Amino acid sequence: MRAEILCVGTELLLGQIIDTNAAYIGETLARSGIDVLRKQTVGDNLERIIDCIRGALSRCDALIITGGLGPTTDDLTREAIAGALGVGLEHRPELEEELRAFFAKRGSVPTGNNLRQAQLPIGTEAIPNPIGTAPGVLAIAQAGQRIFAIPGVPREMKEMVNDTIIPTLLEQLEGERQIIVSRTLRSFGVGESALAEPIEDILTTAENPTVAPLIFGSTEVHLRLTAKAKNEEEAEVLLDEMDATLMERVGAGIFGRNEETLAQVVIQILRERGSNLALAESLTGGQTQNLITEVPGASDVLAGGVVAYSDEIKEKLLGVSPALIAEHTAVSSEVAKAMAEGAKAALGTDFALSLTGEAGPQTNSKSQVGTIWIGLANGEGTWTFRREYHGTRNIIRNRAAHAALDILRRHLLDLPIA
Fold it and tell me: Are the beta carbons of 367 and 329 closer than 8 angstroms?
C-alpha cells in the first residue's frame, strides 16, 4: 500500500511551528507495513491544497492530511477535500450536537465559527475526535483511494491515527501485510562520504534491508537500516545480519544504535571495567560533563571535573605551569597534557580527559579558530590529540565535547584513534 502525507498550515512553511506530525505519522505507518512515498507541506490556500490532494490521489492508495480542520476561516481542509472530489459541503446535525455537548460541559456555547466544524464534504464520514472539537474526515475517492483528514493538534492527531487510521488501513492489508522495522547505527568523527565509501556496494544494491547514510545534526552520521518482514522477529534477523556485515567494514566508527548516545556508551564501558573519570575543560566550559551527567547513573563513573576557563585556574587547580602556558599558549598539546594529568591527580581517577582550544569567533592565541587539543591520561601515560573544526562557536564546542568522549571510547576498546 502506497501512502502520502499532506501537512496543511502556513505556519509550517514559515518555520513558526516545527512539523512533528509528519514524523509521527510516517513512523507509525512504517511500523504498520505501509509505505510512505511522499510528504508535502502546503499553506492555507484553497486552490493549492486542492492541487496537492489531486496530485497525491494520482499516485497513492491512502492520503493522510493533518491540519486545517479548525474553526477559523483559514482552516480550509474540509473545503479542499470537497473541491478535490467535486462535491459540496453539508451540515451534519449529529456533529453539531456533539459540539454543543462538548462546550456545555465547559459551561459555554459554540460560536458560529465553531459550528463550521459540523460541516463535512458530501458522501464522507466523520472520524471521531475523543479529545477535541474538530472531527476528522474519511473520504473515498472515485478510484478507491482513501483520504483521511485529522487535526494538526499533536495530541488529537495521535489519538485519531492510532484509533481510526491505522486499523482502517490494516483491514485492507490482510494477507499482504509486511511490517517495516528500522535500526540506526550511529557514528562520530567519520564524514558521510568516508563512512559510505567502504560500503558503497551495499548502499546501491541491498534491497532488504536497505541501508542509507544520514547526517544527524552537527556531530553524527547515521546508517539507517530498514527491513520488511511478516513480523518483527523476522525483521530483526534481517537487521542483525546486515548490522554484522556493516560492522565488519566500518565498525570502528560506529559507537551505538538507535537512541544510544556517545556518553551512554562511554559510561557503560567504564562501569563494566569498574573505572572512573575526571574532566578538565576550558573551551567547552563543562559541556562534556553535561553530556555525561544527562545519563542516569553517571555518578557511577564520573568523579567530577574542573572548568578551568582562565589560565589562572589552570595553574591553581590543575597545576599547569605558568611557564608552560607562556611558552606554548593555553591552546597547545603541552597544556592539554598537563590539564589531563592535573585532573587525574587532583581527583584520583583512573582516567582523565582535558579540552582546550579556540571556539571563536575571535582568537586569543596563536591558533586558528576551531583548533582543539584533547588530552587523555591514565595510569600508563598521557596522549594528546588535535582536532580542527569549522562552524559557529556552539558547533565547535559541541563537536569538541563529543570528540573527547569518542577518543576515550576508542581508547577503552583498543580501536584506532586518528
Answer: yes
